[in-house]
Each structure stands twice: as C-alpha cells, then as structure tokens.
Design a protein that fits this description.
The chain has 91 residues and is an alpha+beta fold. The N and C termini lie far apart (69 Å). 2% of the residues are buried. A two-stranded antiparallel sheet has the order 1-2. The longest helix is centred in the last third of the chain and has 16 residues. It has three helices and two strands; from the N terminus they run ββααα.
C-alpha cells in the first residue's frame, strides 16, 4: 500500500519500466501551467513557469515584466488598452 501522502490525485503518477522489466510507479508533483493573458488567453512571455515555492525565491523583477500590467496582460493586449485609453481621452 502506498503511504497516505501519495494517495491523492494532486500528485502525478508516472509509470516507469525498471531494468528488470517490472513497471514501477513514480510520484511527481504536477508542474504549473504557463501563465496566460487575462484578456486573450495567450501564454505570457517573460513570466517563469515555476511552482509557488520556487517563484517565492525570485526577485520581483524576475517574476514578471517591468511594465504596467506586466504578468497579467500580454504586450499586444496592453498596447490595445493604451491605444483605447488615449483615443477615449482625446474625445
């Protein structure tokens, strides 16, 4: 029987074939998905794909791009947002 801490589905089960031919289950933590833009859903560039524990060790400048809405919006959506704001202000 597997120990209770590994009997959860939040831990990924990976099947490996041992040199003896026996199939063994290895337990690995699931890796987080790529951060995505909150507007269009496109993967964000410049944002690391790390677990929260690993992300906590990085400095703020390494966690996200240093621009308004960095780490939340992609560069395309940000430029559209700024353009819309300027046009709205002009009217």
């Amino acid at each position: 029987m597997v120990r209770p801490g590994l009997r959860v589905r939040s831990i990924r089960r990976v099947y490996r074939r041992a040199p003896s031919g026996r199939v063994v289950i290895h337990f690995e933590e699931k890796r987080p998905g790529k951060p995505i833009c909150s507007n269009c859903g496109k993967p964000l560039g410049g944002v690391p794909k790390l677990k929260h524990v690993e992300l906590r060790k990085l400095s703020k400048s390494k966690k996200r791009p240093n621009r308004p809405y960095g780490g939340t919006l992609c560069s395309t959506c940000l430029s559209r947002l700024i353009t819309r704001a300027v046009l709205r202000e002009a009217h």
